[in-house]
Backbone:
């Protein structure tokens, strides 16, 4: 830092200038004052000496005139006496003038007129600066002559010069003292200011821990207290803002929706991780198509300040976008966009529409059969007993089909509403799987599908036997519907940390994009909904609700053309509360029945 530009340099310079100017003015004034004082004092002495000498001469004292040499030595001046006509009557040795010399100077004329004259200036007779005093000699109020006294100025000038040197040395000493004291005082004054500067710089960089040590109650102390108070308040406010910012960041980061903020030019200011994930972004830069779309919305927002709703469609997602302006003094300065993945909602909406279509279809088909055959019997088309028996069988089948559909819908609704009562008890899951396999075996023989069951003994769970029986029937029936003749279905029950039921087929499989929807009502991979080998589409939805009611989990893995595997996981029960029963292993028996068929 430049010394002169620092506060120490400025105060030192101001002090020096003040001292110098003060001493110049004061020194000049004192010098002039002393000079005038000495000159006036000398002139007064010369006038008094001249008057005494004039009085002595006017009284006829010729001794004074004769002894001018002695008088000059006493008063330190040159003395000359002239008569009324201006002729030199007597003159000291310094003048070098002879008696009888005529003086025609203005001072002589004025003194002979009765005026006391004092002058100062260069005198050619002495070739130096002189003080001149002329006193008239009066006798009975008449001027009879004059006394002229001449004193050199040099002794007085020397005294004044000595005084000036003393003043100069005193000024120099005062300047040195002012410099030392100025540096000392300004250093003490600037030190807390420099400390305040450092604290202010730390505050500017975000460090509010610095405090100013207070050593007095003067203005500097008050300023230091104010700075300390400011630092404390800024620290508190900054900490509060930081906490609020952290809360906001946590809220934004924990949101399931994406958030994007834009400035007035449409440039991206902020994106949370959810927005990047929804838009498949690796950084904070939008894609070209996305930028075009958002810029169009931003233009409308900046024009009229209205909120906008829209949609973005990516390769596999539908994203709902809601944009609102950010205001500053009633002017939009940007916008915030809320992004929400509505793919599932749109799919559920589609499924609801398909649900209505499916219910209508499932109900219309048996009703159409019933109406058609009833009209046929009414028209007398079933005259033979065997025809009537066939029609009645169709009535019964379609009625049972309607009843199953209604029962499945009622059960599913009760399960989803939490109103389905569960008769929970200890049961052996392996024995239950064997029983269901035996029950479903004839259907597998009818379709020429091998049905194999491997179940470990003593896998105990706490559940509703009828509902778990329904789960196994629905899953095995579903597998039989999608497995071709000559293929096989495997049922396995194992125990690890939980009980696991796996039903694996080698059927047509389910496309990966449809795996999340197989649990929906009336969802069918077969979009044609052919009546043959097609269920109601409620079986898997019932399975999921029953397993969820047992605090279990169910999921599916599949590969098109390879097959599908459903896995049900149920928590184990305490094995000490039930007596284990031997479960016959029927794999070989199933094989023999399959071969005989």
Residues:
């Amino acid at each position: 830092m430049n010394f002169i530009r620092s506060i120490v340099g400025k105060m030192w310079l101001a002090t020096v200038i003040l001292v110098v100017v003060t001493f110049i003015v004061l020194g000049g004034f004192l010098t002039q004052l002393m000079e005038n004082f000495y000159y006036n004092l000398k002139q007064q002495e010369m006038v008094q000496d001249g008057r005494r000498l004039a009085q002595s001469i006017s009284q006829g004292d010729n001794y004074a005139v004769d002894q001018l040499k002695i008088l000059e030595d006493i008063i330190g001046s040159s003395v000359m006496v002239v008569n009324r006509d201006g002729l030199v009557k007597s003159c000291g040795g310094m003048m070098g003038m002879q008696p009888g010399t005529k003086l025609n100077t203005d001072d002589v004329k004025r003194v002979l007129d009765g005026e006391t004259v004092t002058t100062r200036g260069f005198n050619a007779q002495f070739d130096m600066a002189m003080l001149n005093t002329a006193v008239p000699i009066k006798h009975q109020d008449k001027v009879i002559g004059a006394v002229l006294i001449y004193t050199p100025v040099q002794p007085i000038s020397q005294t004044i010069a000595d005084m000036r040197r003393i003043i100069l040395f005193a000024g120099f000493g005062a300047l040195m003292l002012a410099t030392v004291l100025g540096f000392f005082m300004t250093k003490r004054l600037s030190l807390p200011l420099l400390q305040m500067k450092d604290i202010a710089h730390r505050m500017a960089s975000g460090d509010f821990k610095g405090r100013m040590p207070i050593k007095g109650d003067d203005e500097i102390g008050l300023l230091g207290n104010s700075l300390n108070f400011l630092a404390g308040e800024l620290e508190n406010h900054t900490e509060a803002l930081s906490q609020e910012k952290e809360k906001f960041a946590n809220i934004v980061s924990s949101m399931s929706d994406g958030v994007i903020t834009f400035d007035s030019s449409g440039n991206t200011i902020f994106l949370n991780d959810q927005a990047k994930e929804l838009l498949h972004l690796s950084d904070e830069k939008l894609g070209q198509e996305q930028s075009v779309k958002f810029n169009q919305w931003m233009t409308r927002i900046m024009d009229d300040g209205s909120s906008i709703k829209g949609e973005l469609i990516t390769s596999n997602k539908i994203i709902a976008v809601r944009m609102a302006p950010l205001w500053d003094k009633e002017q939009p300065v940007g916008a915030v966009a809320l992004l929400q993945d509505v793919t599932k909602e749109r799919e559920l909406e589609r499924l609801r529409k398909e649900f209505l279509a499916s219910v209508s279809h499932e109900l219309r088909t048996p009703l159409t059969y019933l109406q058609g055959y009833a009209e046929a019997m009414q028209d007398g088309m079933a005259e033979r007993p065997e025809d009537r028996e066939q029609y009645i069988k169709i009535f019964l089948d379609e009625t049972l089909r309607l009843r199953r559909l209604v029962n499945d819908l009622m059960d599913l609704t009760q399960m989803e509403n939490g109103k389905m009562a569960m008769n929970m008890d200890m049961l052996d899951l392996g024995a239950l799987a064997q029983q269901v396999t035996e029950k479903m075996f004839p259907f597998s023989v009818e379709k020429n599908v091998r049905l194999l069951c491997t179940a470990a003994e003593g896998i105990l769970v706490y559940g509703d036997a009828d509902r778990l029986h329904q789960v196994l029937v629905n899953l095995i029936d579903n597998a039989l519907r999608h497995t071709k003749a000559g293929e096989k279905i495997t049922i396995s029950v194992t125990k690890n940390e939980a009980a696991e039921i796996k039903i694996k087929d080698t059927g047509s499989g389910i496309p990966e994009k449809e795996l999340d929807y197989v649990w929906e009502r009336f969802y069918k991979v077969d979009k044609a909904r052919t009546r043959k080998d097609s269920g109601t589409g409620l079986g898997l939805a019932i399975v999921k609700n029953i397993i969820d009611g047992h605090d279990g989990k169910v999921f599916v893995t599949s590969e098109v053309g390879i097959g599908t595997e459903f896995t049900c996981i149920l928590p184990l029960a305490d094995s000490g509360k039930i007596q284990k029963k031997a479960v016959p292993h029927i794999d070989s028996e199933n094989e023999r029945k399959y071969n005989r068929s």
Q: What stands out?
A: The longest helix spans residues 7-58.
